[in-house]
Task: inverse folding
């Protein structure tokens, strides 16, 4: 194995290369484009045996990905943010075709206002589509998760497409040491793609993804897709075990850091969770029993495993880098669902931060831990909080003054 | 952990500098994280890149807010607030400036506790956006100042990161980097590593509850006209177009029409005038003017002349 410095985008391209993909429908979008550029360069230099086709939109790109996977080839594609949303009709549609392929999403905040920097509202919009979702915290995890994602997606009990998610900027353009799998080991780990009865060919026509009228058949197909996604929970550990045996790295469906005796827990997904690791270390040094729980697998949602981990803890802070308008943090809702009604459930509080690339600093983690302790002492969770400081508000006021959004109300406050 | 920030202009190679330094640290057995930071900028605009290096895996992410070393490739950026050069600098920071001016001048100009060092600038070039070898020179200086990277690893990193270029260019970069490394050797170890902030007696974030404000206020709209005037893109300029009114035919429309930024206005007397607060120095006007009445001059020279005239 060779350890080298790679950006998150390059690690994603390597993942696709090591998985020996056949077909890559592509459309550029910041901050994902480097993935496609790397793959295109390799194909151009005959270092990779695959066909890359640039499509005219993400809608066509995802259609092409699903269609090609139906014809029995291994497919990879990548997008981000507005691109994922533009292709969203087909995200739901191709999942219903039960075609396995892997798409990387490089998370970037959604318009409006438009931004280039990262948060998780884009990937959360694909939450209910049928795509499996793996969320990465490091560049190493990106390369590894793509290999794992092909195994999960192509598993005969699952056969659903998968998204591997990584954060724009914080991973996409950031180099970190990555231990790249040997090509031969990766090849035998991922194996040949067995398309089973997915044999969509010009010379032997079949109809796929047809309409059904009447709720009975519709309900059947939709529920079967749901069950198929859930099957990924059953087969995940076996695949992760095999990965660990071959490559020496274990990627659990839930990453637990210093959880053994933790009384207070941070919950996060994605690259900002490594900041939470630092905070856990510092808080432990200061005598606080704090841990970090990070779901890597977000669809299917590992509800039982989360319950087992959190039962009996004093208080949990879910830190969401997304916001569901009118509800709040999406992860928080999902954790509330997982924990509601179980014996010895911890108090659960909600923080929203890191929207549009906004940093979350160590002092904020420390303050959250402090609030968890206070919540436990008084037996009640604090109201949800957006991580936002007085200084940020003052800067906002300056912008509003320039934009002349000012009215009497602003001057009064 | 070493925390190092490189500041320069788009095109000067700060991303390359960060990658050379990152690769050199990695070869020296360090865990490394390096990244450029950019948005929708272009050549000439202030950009920065950063490197973290430590003996243990790095969990910290994002912009370095408390740097141990700040390197500035282009001294015109030092006093420019938009470039953010001085962000988070304190008595533990080393500030290295690539400049022709002596350290005393910078100590007088900057009200900072940081230790200021000078990287003796090479012979001046006309277009600062194309400062030659500056990426390798900055990386070499950083490598020497940390005292964590040998000459051998530095040169190997340059060969690796510039591998797509011709061999003679790589060799020149290696030679120049080698001499900068030697030049800085007497400051070896000046750059300090720093740890994580403590969770004991930490400064609490000044969180506020963001109030509800109705759509008259919170709608994403700009009511004021011409707010883009406030973004002084003239700071990105490394070459300055100058109109020679003796040659200008007063055609009244060609340069002003071609200007992609609307930074050339036509005066009431029919002659054009360049708005230097917003001209980015793309020099499209120079290429388009039929009587060749617009010349380009180096921005840093033009500014020196202006400063001389006002002094």
Result:
């Amino acid at each position: 194995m060779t350890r080298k410095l790679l950006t998150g985008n390059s690690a994603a391209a390597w993942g696709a290369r090591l998985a020996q993909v056949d077909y890559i429908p592509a459309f550029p979008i910041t901050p994902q484009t480097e993935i496609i550029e790397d793959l295109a360069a390799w194909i151009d230099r005959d270092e990779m045996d695959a066909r890359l086709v640039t499509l005219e939109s993400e809608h066509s790109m995802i259609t092409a990905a699903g269609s090609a996977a139906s014809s029995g080839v291994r497919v990879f594609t990548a997008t981000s943010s507005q691109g994922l949303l533009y292709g969203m009709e087909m995200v739901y549609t191709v999942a219903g075709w039960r075609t396995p392929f892997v798409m990387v999403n490089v998370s970037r905040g959604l318009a409006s206002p438009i931004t280039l920097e990262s948060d998780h509202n884009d990937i959360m919009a694909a939450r209910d589509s049928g795509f499996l979702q793996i969320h990465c915290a490091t560049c190493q995890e990106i390369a590894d998760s793509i290999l794992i994602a092909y195994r999960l997606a192509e598993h005969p009990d699952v056969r659903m497409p998968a998204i591997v998610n990584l954060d724009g900027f914080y991973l996409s353009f950031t180099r970190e040491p990555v231990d790249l799998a040997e090509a031969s080991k990766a090849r035998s780990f991922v194996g040949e793609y067995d398309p089973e009865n997915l044999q969509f060919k010009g010379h032997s026509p079949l109809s796929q993804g047809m309409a059904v009228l009447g709720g009975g058949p519709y309900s059947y197909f939709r529920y079967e897709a749901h069950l198929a996604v859930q099957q990924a929970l059953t087969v995940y550990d076996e695949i992760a075990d095999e990965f660990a045996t071959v490559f020496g790295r274990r990627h659990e469906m839930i990453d637990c850091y210093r959880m053994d005796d933790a009384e207070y827990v941070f919950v996060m997904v994605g690259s900002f969770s490594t900041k939470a690791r630092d905070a856990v270390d510092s808080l432990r040094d200061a005598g606080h029993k704090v841990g970090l729980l990070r779901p890597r697998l977000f669809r299917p949602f590992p509800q039982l495993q989360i319950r087992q981990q959190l039962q009996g803890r004093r208080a949990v802070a879910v830190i969401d880098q997304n916001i569901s308008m009118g509800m709040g943090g999406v992860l928080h809702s999902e954790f509330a669902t997982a924990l509601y009604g179980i014996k010895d459930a911890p108090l659960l509080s909600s923080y929203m931060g890191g929207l549009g690339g906004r940093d979350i600093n160590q002092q904020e983690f420390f303050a959250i831990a402090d609030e968890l302790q206070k919540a436990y002492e008084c037996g009640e969770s604090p109201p949800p909080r957006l991580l936002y400081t007085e200084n940020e508000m003052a800067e906002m006021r300056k912008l509003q003054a320039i934009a002349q959004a000012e009215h009497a109300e602003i001057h009064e406050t | 952990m070493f925390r190092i920030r490189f500041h320069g202009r788009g095109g000067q190679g700060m991303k390359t500098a960060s990658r050379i330094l990152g690769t050199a640290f990695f070869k020296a057995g360090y865990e490394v994280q390096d990244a450029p930071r950019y948005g929708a900028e272009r050549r000439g605009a202030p950009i920065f890149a950063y490197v973290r290096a430590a003996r243990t895996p790095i969990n910290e992410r994002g912009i370095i807010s408390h740097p141990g070393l700040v390197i500035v490739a282009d001294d015109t950026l030092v006093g420019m607030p938009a470039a953010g050069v001085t962000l988070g600098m304190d008595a533990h920071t080393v500030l290295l400036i690539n400049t022709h001016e002596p350290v005393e001048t910078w100590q007088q100009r900057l009200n900072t506790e940081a230790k200021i060092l000078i990287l003796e600038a090479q012979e001046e070039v006309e277009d600062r956006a194309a400062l030659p070898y500056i990426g390798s020179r900055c990386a070499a200086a950083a490598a020497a100042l940390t005292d964590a990277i040998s000459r051998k690893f530095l040169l190997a990193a340059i060969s690796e990161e510039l591998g797509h270029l011709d061999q003679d260019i790589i060799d020149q970069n290696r030679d120049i980097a080698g001499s900068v490394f030697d030049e800085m050797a007497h400051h070896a170890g000046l750059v300090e590593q720093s740890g994580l902030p403590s969770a004991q007696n930490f400064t609490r974030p000044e969180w506020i509850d963001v109030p509800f404000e109705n759509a008259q206020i919170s709608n994403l709209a700009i009511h004021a006209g011409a707010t883009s005037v406030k973004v002084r893109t003239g700071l990105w300029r490394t070459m300055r177009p100058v109109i020679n009114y003796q040659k200008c035919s007063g055609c009244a429309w060609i340069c002003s029409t071609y200007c992609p930024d609307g930074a050339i206005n036509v005066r009431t007397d029919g002659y054009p005038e360049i708005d230097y607060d917003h001209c980015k120095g793309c020099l499209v006007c120079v290429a388009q003017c039929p009587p060749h009445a617009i010349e380009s001059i180096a921005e840093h020279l033009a500014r020196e002349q202006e400063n001389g005239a006002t002094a």
The radius of gyration of chain B is 23 Å. Chain B is about 30% helix and 20% strand. The domain at 233-310 of chain B is CATH 3.30.70.20 (Alpha-Beta Plaits). The mean pLDDT of chain B is 94.
